[in-house]
Amino acid sequence: MLFSSTVFLFLFLPIVCLLHLLVRKELKDYVLLLASIFFYAWGEPRYVAVMLLTIIINYVGAILISKYKCKKTLLLLTILGDLSFLFYFKYFNFFVENINELFGDHIDFIKVIMPIGISFYTFQAISYVVDVYREEVEPQKNIYKLALYITLFPQLVAGPIVKYHDVADQIENRTVDFEKVAYGVKRFIVGLAKKVLLANTLGAVADKVFTQPIDQLDCMTTWLGAICYTFQIYYDFSGYSDMAIGLGSIFGFKFLENFTYPYISKSVSEYWRRWHISMGSWFRDYLFLPLQRALSLSKTYGKLSRRLGRRKINILLTAIALLVTWFLIGFWHGAGWSFVVYGLYNGFFIFLETLTGWNRDRKSFVGRAMQHFYTMFVVVLGFVIFRSDTMNYAWHYLLTMFGAERGETMYHLIYYVDRIEIIALIVGAICSAPLCRKMLEVEGRNQLRIAAVNLWLLALFILSAASIAASTYNPFIYFRF
User: Fold this and answer.
1) pLDDT, tens digit, for every residue of 35-61?
2) Nearest residue to 276 (alpha-carbon basis) of 247, 243, 309, 241
3) pTM of the predicted model, to two decimals?
4) Burial level of 408, CB count in 10 A (0-12/13-18/19+)?
5) Residue 14 burial by CB count (10 A; 0-12/13-18/19+): exposed, middle or buried?
6) Which residue numbers are catalytic?
7) How far, in Å, CA of 174 to CA of 153, rounded?
């Protein structure tokens, strides 16, 4: 069930909100839990059992970790159980296909269909058991509350990836008041408008370009497709994050921000601190930093540091930790070599910036402008790799962008964009900067400004609802992950 669907907007959400409002406080968690399971079962009824089994494994695992001394072994077994589901459903096809291709074999197998949201709820489950292992939180004795954390429908299928220690207190005790509900509704409308009015409009252009054979594209068309996709994925994913944060606020939860205007960044490092923040912080806290610490405590570190010097070995260890982390970040996004290359591509630039100091802010306007241009140049090219189904297509697409190859284009540029899509591209570029970030936080006695904002949001909701009703094009990019 998409947030941007008529069933969700005009049936599911009103019913859940009404029930949540009417029931006693001690029953609100059960309303949300049942609603979340129903929400997931609407699109994936066959895979509800997988999610419930994940809940049971982590519930039992966390309790055992807190009781027995062999904590590390129990943690590894629990995480292995979580990752086994993720591997089978998300990566089994990929590995068998690559084995067949590598060895020229033909292993017959039934293709596995990936459950929606498995990457997100698996990482949340791992976050929980690791937090218990680190003694940052107590194990949840009530399995229904743990199930609520893992299945909560606002962030179930597309994030943000909520760490258990960030919401543990809210699961136990939270309040719902008018201000939270009002903010949540406004935030939801903003996210809906991002998704429906901008992402869908620009996505139609990007799809037209990227579905063309590469020999039928020219330089200008490939740049148009890449730029439209760059804005599509931002407004698609940040729009869903806004809707999730808004829905969380309606039900009394406060989720951390997932996007903070990444397209104003002046380095790739800064970009990834602003883009999909919950994923980046998860990999930092649960993979990169522990891996870096483990490498620095190894016996090999001491021997090499005496031979090569502490600075050189620290650079080497950082490079290894970044390589592993960004390989897995790319692989987390999807079972395909283009995703792996996309991850390593970003990791390379982050390591290069760390090594050269390029990620430090420049004082001059020209210096900052150069940094921003470089960052967006890297980001746009990276999204070509990300969007391409194969690395061969991505390579030829990039060559065409720079005029190294030129296809016999069948269509003029006007075929791909009309007036509405040009307006959406301009508005998308303007709104990617923090020009109106305080709009939803209007306080005090400025009633005229508050009324103007509310009318504007009402207009956005009406336009979004009308667009949903009139269009059959309503994809969601991150359902693939």
Assistant:
1) 999 999 987 788 899 999 999 999 999
2) 241
3) 0.91
4) exposed
5) exposed
6) 333
7) 17
